[in-house]
Amino acid sequence: MNRQPVDSLCQGSEVDSVYILKRKLIKKNPDGSQFALFLFSDNTGVLGGILWDGVRETCDRIGQGRFVRVVGDVQDYRDNLQVRVRHIEAVDGAQFDLADFLPVTPLNRDELKEEWISRIKDIQNTQLRALLTCMLEDEDLGWRFCAAPAGKTWHHPYIGGLLEHVVKLTRLVMVVCEIYPDLDRDLLLAACYLHDLGKVREMEYEKAIDYSSEGKLLGHVVQGVEILDEFLPRYPELPREMIYRLKHLIVSHQGQYEYGSPKLPKTVEAIIFHHLDNLDAQYDGFSRVVREGRETMGPDGNWTTVNKLLGRNLYMGGAED
Fold first, then answer.
1. Inside any domain, residue 210
2. How far apart are CA 74 and CA 85, in angstroms?
3. Span 229-281, pLDDT tens digits
4. What is the 8-class DSSP label of residue 257?
5. pLDDT for 64-88, tens place per residue?
6. Rounded to the nearest 10 degrees, how much is the dihedral formed by the CA atoms of 270, 169, 210, 134?
């Protein structure tokens, strides 16, 4: 089946293509009749949809986060494109490349993985090095780590985002440990991998990027500690104090209670790591707002539109009139 990327559509286009169904919602007209609102997506954007006929029967057959074939025509609705759906059906997503439907890190994931492997080799403690190697080589955890996003909307919110975030953190750690040689580099490198590892379970990313039910109920901090506990029995020689410090780095990395951190940083490595983690996350989020602003506003725009998450617009630079 030929794909019609969302960003290729325009008013009047005929659509017969596969997308991911991000949202479905049944609404009522004043006369009591029903209609359905949809939100479809691929890696180029999102597209609204509306269905007038056979609403309940159709919605019962299709699920959010699934691949669907959409047939209809594109119309303008309040200055946004919307497909008037004539037919919609669930399809098997196994035949499609996930990268066509979800955003993916712009960096080479194989190269990122090799860089993380090289950083593991820099770890001096043999038991800790063996633990991290075992976790990376685990068939299920390994592929999930390389595929998971680091978030849904703010930083590294795409396939491979967690891997990219981890590798960039290791680069920061290597530099900072040159400046402050008394820091425990082994712990900091391990924290790069472990601090957000729970996101492999907190996030769903096989068909759409969203939070899992487990993630909503527990959160990646708790899930990260659980994953670590599943592997620790294989390495009984790891010092108990090191295990405490590793877990502390996980539970304190968000830095403040109001940011979801169960504990405030209470070791030098923990406070340093919190700031490094926040640095990479904020750089990625802010720089993407500016980049998307330039794409939206064009060469003559100096400011982004107001970002709802930040509560402000950002200055992009450029010549003022």
1. yes
2. 9
3. 999 999 999 999 999 999 999 999 999 999 889 999 999 999 999 999 999 99
4. G
5. 878 899 999 999 888 888 999 999 9
6. -90
Q: What does the alpha-carbon distance between residue 302 and residue 66 come to, in Å, rounded to a whole number?
A: 39
Instruction: Quickly tell me which residue has 């399809």 as its tokens.
Output: 91
What is the distance between the alpha carbons of residues 87 and 72, in angstroms, rounded to a whole number?
A: 7
Ramachandran region of residue 193, left (φ > 0), alpha (ψ -120 to 50) or beta? alpha
Whether 181 and 61 share a structural domain = no
What per-residue string of b and e applies to 100-131 under the rule 16 or more CB within 10 Å gives b?
A: ebbbbbeeeeeebbebbeebbeebebeebbbb
Spell out the residues 6+ positions from residue 53 whose beta carbon is closer than 8 angstroms to its own: none
> How many CA atoms lie less than 13 Å away from 260 in the CB half-sphere?
10
Q: Which residues contact 217 (CB under 8 A, 6 or more apart)?
A: none
In angstroms, the CA 209 to CA 40 distance is 13
Six token digits for residue 170: 């290791």
162: which 2 tokens?
């967690």
Q: Would you say how long the chain is, in residues?
A: 321
Q: Of 95, 129, 161, which one is at a domain's C-terminal end?
A: 95
Residue at a domain's end among 46, 76, 95: 95
The letter for the amino acid at 118 is: S
Domain that holds residue 131: 102-285
- Identify whether residues 271 and 127 lie together within a single domain: yes
Quick check: 243 and 234 in contact, CB under 8 A? no
Contact 160, 151 (CB under 8 A): no
Identity (one letter) of the amino acid at 29?
Answer: N
Residue 235 and residue 134: Cα distance in Å, rounded?
Answer: 10
The verdict on 143 and 127 lying in the same domain is yes
pTM (2 d.p.) = 0.80
